[in-house]
């Protein structure tokens, strides 16, 4: 019985190390990205995964926003493709 546990101990140890070095940080990164995307609002300056920099002109629905790349040039972008928010706008005062 003890020898069986001793044989599986290195395997369990490797899995634990992999979890804390690879899986857990990736889950936290996904969670942070999701929070960033959910907090997008009109006026935020964003960078897409394709490298385009623009300003959010309209939040259409849960999965899509409209980004103004230049004056009069607006594109529809899937929210999950936003890589970074460069500057946030202040919330409207009530």
From TrEMBL:
Compartment(s) where it occurs, according to its Swiss-Prot or TrEMBL record: Cell membrane
A biological process term (GO) from this entry: protein transport
Protein keywords: Cell membrane, Membrane, Protein transport, Translocation, Transmembrane, Transmembrane helix, Transport
Membrane topology classification: Single-pass membrane protein
A GO cellular-component term linked to this record: plasma membrane
TM regions (residue ranges): 6-23
Superkingdom of this protein's organism: Bacteria
InterPro entries xrefs: Preprotein_translocase_YajC (IPR003849)
Subunit: Part of the SecDF-YidC-YajC translocase complex. The SecDF-YidC-YajC translocase forms a supercomplex with SecYEG, called the holo-translocon (HTL).
Family that this chain belongs to: Belongs to the YajC family.
Chain's role: The SecYEG-SecDF-YajC-YidC holo-translocon (HTL) protein secretase/insertase is a supercomplex required for protein secretion, insertion of proteins into membranes, and assembly of membrane protein complexes. While the SecYEG complex is essential for assembly of a number of proteins and complexes, the SecDF-YajC-YidC subcomplex facilitates these functions.
The protein's name: Sec translocon accessory complex subunit YajC
Organism for this UniProt entry: Marinibacterium profundimaris
């Amino acid at each position: 019985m003890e020898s069986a546990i001793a044989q599986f101990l290195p395997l369990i140890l490797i899995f634990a190390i992999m979890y804390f070095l690879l899986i857990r940080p990736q889950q936290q990164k996904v969670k942070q990205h999701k929070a960033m995307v959910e907090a997008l609002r009109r006026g935020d300056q964003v960078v897409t995964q394709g490298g385009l920099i623009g300003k959010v002109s309209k939040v259409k629905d849960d999965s899509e926003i409209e980004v103004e790349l230049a004056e009069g040039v607006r594109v529809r972008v899937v929210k999950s493709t936003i890589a970074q928010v460069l500057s946030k706008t202040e919330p409207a005062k009530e």
